[in-house]
Write a structure and sequence with these properties.
Elements lengths: L2 H5 L4 E8 L7 H17 L4 E3 L10 H4 L3 H4 L6 H13 L2 E8 L8 E7 L5 E6 L7 H4 L8 E3 L4 E4 L8 H9 L4 E5 L7 H15 L2 E5 L2 E4 L2 E4 L3 E3 L5 E4 L6 E8 L1 H9 L18
Helix pairs in contact: 2-5, 7-8
Length: 280
């Protein structure tokens, strides 16, 4: 899909969701492979390529965790620059999960970068809800930005964030048509994965693209099952094979408007009744 089509008012997006297998603690090798996969996806017409949580380092924190301080990169570091070059060359948006260290000193963040077709960094999202060992190696984020693209508005949450309805709801209330969830979801919790993604899509009448890692890292098994759910909560595409791969799916984001008229959850909210949600 070209920018010309999008400029004409198109709201159709070709997603390429990369079920990525990482080499532990080797950002250079992982980034090189990721850029190759971005190029291949772009050649097949992808408008948006999404890589999972901590793709550049691997996830198993029993191994990766002690090395996070030296593996984390600034937003102008080599991994992000390579992704920007790949986005520019492929004329596609890229969303990718990695450990980021911002200007302030201290513990890095478990983040995702959002890059546009011109290779410009639109912004970042920092994971808000840290899972298990992540608390020892990362700081938690505190913002839910949304990003305007030439096909619609997108939001990002990361893995465990998907279990908290408030994150996806804050993105939807800011007009997100498509919510991306780069993840490192483990095999023993796939029953929760299969519930969370459709639920977040239905209750926010938005598309949800849940992009999981694949691989065995020490004792941690991540089986993939990357999927896309429509605003009715139906799974419309999934990588059934437990292997590295790319899920290609084309979505018409105009459908979000129709679904929100048929299931007006956002319109019919009663925030005056929800004080308990704000209590610690």
């Amino acid at each position: 899909m070209t920018e010309t089509k999008q400029a004409a008012g198109g709201r159709t997006v070709h997603l390429a969701l990369v079920q990525f297998e990482s080499v532990l603690c080797d950002p250079a090798a992982n980034t090189q492979k990721a850029c190759r996969m971005i190029a291949e996806a772009a050649a097949e017409g992808a408008d948006l390529v999404v890589l999972p949580e901590l793709f550049s380092t691997g996830y198993e924190l029993n191994i990766v965790g002690p090395h996070v301080p030296e593996l984390a990169e600034p937003v102008d570091g080599p991994t992000v620059r390579a992704l920007q070059d790949a986005a520019r060359a492929g004329n596609c948006y890229v969303v990718a999960g990695l450990a980021l260290a911002y200007d302030m000193a201290g513990v890095p963040f478990n983040s995702s970068v959002v890059i546009d077709r011109q290779g410009e960094l639109l912004g970042t999202y920092d994971k808000q809800h840290l899972w298990a060992l992540e608390r020892f190696y990362f700081r938690s984020g505190c913002d839910c930005p949304v990003f305007d693209t030439d096909f619609g508005r997108i939001g990002v949450m990361i893995c465990y964030d998907m279990g908290f309805p408030e994150v996806a709801r804050m993105l939807a209330l800011q007009g997100a048509d498509l919510i991306l969830c780069p993840s490192a979801w483990c095999q023993e919790d796939m029953d929760v994965w299969d519930v969370n993604a459709p639920a977040r899509a239905l209750e926010n009448t938005a598309f949800v693209a849940a992009v999981n890692r694949y691989g065995v890292e020490d004792q941690l098994v991540m089986p993939g099952h990357t999927k896309v759910c429509n605003p009715r909560g139906h799974v419309v595409a999934e990588l059934a094979e437990e292997a590295e791969g790319v899920l290609h799916v084309e979505l018409d984001l105009n459908e979000v408007v129709d679904y929100r008229q048929r299931s007006p959850y956002l319109r019919d909210r009663r925030p005056d009744l929800y004080d308990l949600v704000l209590l610690p």
